[in-house]
Structures are given as C-alpha cells and as structure tokens.
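tool_call: predict_structure(chain=1)
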Amino acid sequence: TVCAKLSCFILQKRIREIAPKIVQLLTEWTETFPYDFRDERMMRSLKEMTHRLAFGDELSRRAMQRLIQRLLRKLTTLGQYEESLATSSATAAAMDRPLALKSKQQLVRREECVLNLCDDPFVFAQQLTHIEMERLSYIGPEEFVRAFAQKRPSDNHKSLFSKRKASNLEAYVEWFNRLSYLTATEICMPVKKKHRARVLEFFIDVAQECFNIGNFNSLMAIITGMNMNPVSRLKKTWNKVNTDKFDILVHQMDPSSNFYNYRTALRGATQRSSTAHTSQEMIVIPFFSLFIKDIYFLNEGCVNRLPNGHINFEKFWELAKQVSEFLSWRQVICPFERDRKTLQYLISTPVFSEDELQLASYESEGPENNLERDTRRSLRSECFFENPCLRH
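tool_result:
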C-alpha cells in the first residue's frame, strides 16, 4: 500500500540520518570495551543493530560488518591468550608438585642459579617488562567493573557476571605472586653463602633497573620476595651485601602515607611517558594491586550518591581519569629485544611453596633456637620425607 511504502521510506531516511552516529558510538564502544561483547546477549544485540542499519544505509552496513570483523579478531586473540595462560598455569602446577616430592631434593642444595641463565640485570628487567606489558595489554577496563560486581552481584547482574570471571586480572595478580616466590626461591637455593649473596645482589640490581624502566609491579614483586621471612632471616648472606641500593628502593615503595613516595615516582613516570621521545620512555607499569585498590574505592565512591541525592560526578571523573591512564599504559609496545630462554624460565621454572622456602632457608643458614629446629624437623618430614641428601 501507499501508506506502507511511505512509512518504509521515512524509516529508511531516518536510519540514514542517525546511522553514522550509531556506527561511531558502536565503533568506540567495541574498540575501548571489546570484552563486553563476549557475552552472547551483547553480541546478539550488536548483530541485530547491524541488520537494522543495513535496512536503510549500505555504507553503514559495510562499516558495521568491518566493526564486527575487527571485534571478532580481538576476541579470538583474547581467547587464544587465555588458553595459553591456562596451559602455562597447568604445566607449572604439574611441575611444582612432583618437585616438592622428588626433584627439589636435588634443587635445594645446588650451585646453579639464575645467573647461569642471565647475569645482566638490565636484560633480566627487560624480560620482566615484556611479561608485564603483555599481560597488562590483555586486561580490558571492563574487567575491573566485572571483578567488583562479582563481589556483590545483584539479581539483575548475577547471570551476566557469573559467566566470565576477570581471568586476566587474576592471572596478573598470580604473576606478581609467582615473581615474588621465584625471587625468594633463587636466593635460598645456592649451597654457598657467597653464591646466595651474588644472587641477592643480582635481584637488587634487577629491582633498580625495573624502577628506572618504570616497571613498578616487578619492582614491588622482587622487594616482596626479598622481604619474605625465609630470605630476610639469612643474616650471614645479607651481611655480605651492600644494601644501600635496596634500602632506597624499599623507601621508594614504602606503604606509609598511602604509598606517598611510590605515587610521587608514578606521577614522574607518567609525566615522562606523556612527553616521551622513545618507546622506552613511554613505559609505565603500576604496582597493580594498589592500582586495583584505588579503582575499587573510586568505584565505591561512584555508587554512593551525594547527601543531596545527586550523582557524585567528581568520583566518576576521577575513575574515568584512572581508567584512561590505564588504557594509555597498556597500549605501549615493549621496545626491548626478547630473550626466549629467560622468558621461558620466568614463566615456567618451578618455584618453592612457603613451607619449602622456609626449609631451604633453614638448610642455607641453620635454625637459631629450639622452635626453629622443631620447625625444620617438621618441614623436612612434610616436604621431603626426611630425605638424607638435603642435610649438610
């Protein structure tokens, strides 16, 4: 009928008028928050929108097709990355458990150490930065919201957020813990005091290089590992090391006054990045656990309204600023040459558990009192079944 044709013409004209703006909005959405569309309902809605736009405008239809193709490539890459993470985690777990029962019987008392693989602190810090930047690049800003929503899901959001965990966030936090334990493991392993001291000095130098690069996450992980009791109790080893550099680094990451020193250094690195002339100067890798904490409290501030019932736009602005900085940090391409052997070592070499570290520490420098002697006896039994080859 004439009325139907007229209505169709008007609809097509209206779609052509608004289509470019819709395409622009969806382009920005899918490029900035692609992980939103891992949810089937979101992807279905996006495809329905493509169909509707195609009804009135061929150019918009083609633009939407390209948009979906780019989005699918991103999601495919993400899926492959998460599969590789899962494989690496499973492999490391499979290697670690037998080690506690058998292989570590040879490893605890050994002369070989990380220095046999890489004795250049700068190169080692570069490889740490490769891992940090790769893992950072796969974290979508929407994962922060998803992680916070999981803490207190409402009925409306529960089905949406239960499908996908913030797996990349979790993997990044696990990496921090792994590096801390790896640092402590390497320091506690060597038989001779002078070799332990060399490894200790090496990790202090690596931490310094991480600070210089702007890799604060690896810096804090190394400091955390060196401050673990199994390492900090090695007084004879520490006495052979000049700790001035380490003391300065610890001061830089001091948690007092809400990490004032670190936040000052982070602002300096961010300023350097904004005016950078080289890729290396652009690198900013925040101490991630603290960054998540900051985002969490800003998010809580956004949820709470002002006393007059209005939305707290100041908190929303602060949150948007933090997330925007995060987006700029994760987009930087790591400029350093890759050392595959060192990277493989960092990702997959077995590390000690807390109990195994404590035992290795006692084997390096004996217990100082009856309580420590009883603890060592118990740990020997639990970790190594009283294997005689572990004894001095």
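agent: Residues 58-107 form the longest helix (50 residues). Proceeding to next step.
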